[in-house]
Fold:
Amino acid sequence: MASKIPFSPLDYDKPSEQELLKRSRSFLELMKKRRTVREFSDEPVPEEVIRHCIETAGTAPSGAHMQPWHFVVVRDPQIKKQIRHAAEKEERINYEMRYSDDMKKDIEKLETNFEKPFLEHAPVLIAVFKESYRIENNIRRKNYYVNESVGIATGLLITALHYAGLVCLPHTPSPMRFLNEILKRPGNESPTVILPVGFPADDTRVPDLNRKPMSQILSEF
Ligand SMILES: Cc1cc2nc3c(=O)[nH]c(=O)nc-3n(C[C@H](O)[C@H](O)[C@H](O)COP(=O)(O)O)c2cc1C
Structure:
């Protein structure tokens, strides 16, 4: 038997066409300025701001509303150091052995290497975990569209951080299982990304990347 819940009227205010245009245009201009940053100042970030952004991520839609995500915020310098050490161990192998020549060529423009000082310099790290399955009454239950759902939540998180005025880096030092151990997360969760978050260091530079034009990313019928 399906479990039922009550329904309520939708809380929605329809904007005028002018307002729609204004809001969509100004949000676009804001989002065009989002950049991945790899150099952080050590200036602290208010805890409440990070909580607001994570609560925003938690508003994401998810398959069957399973909300298959968990966020871990790290500020402790000792834990950041452990994460940096473990990430650099994997990244050294990635750069020396696991990455294909094609991949190395594709990331060359970013001028990255196995060293990840931002994992210690950024005042906050947010590790995003996906709940591949859940346990209910000792029974393993499936979650649905987990990658899609957690990807959307992470997108909202990055957007909320940017909107608040912070910068971040989606970092994937794969394999990332070491994060389960360091951050004491259970076996049904897998790390998907770790986001160093904060303010950019003075004189931070970013690569001059081009974004695909609308003609390439949009088809209309
Ligand atoms: C899923 C994902 C994984 C990424 N992993 C890394 C990473 O491990 N290291 C890194 O330096 N950048 C990483 N990036 C950042 C991308 O390199 C960056 O988003 C891209 O170059 C475009 O730059 P922009 O974010 O400034 O527009 C990742 C981005 C995404 C979405």
Remarks:
- The chain is about 40% helix and 15% strand.
- Strands lie at 69-74, 124-131, 133-136, 139-142, 167-168, 189-198.
- The mean pLDDT is 96.
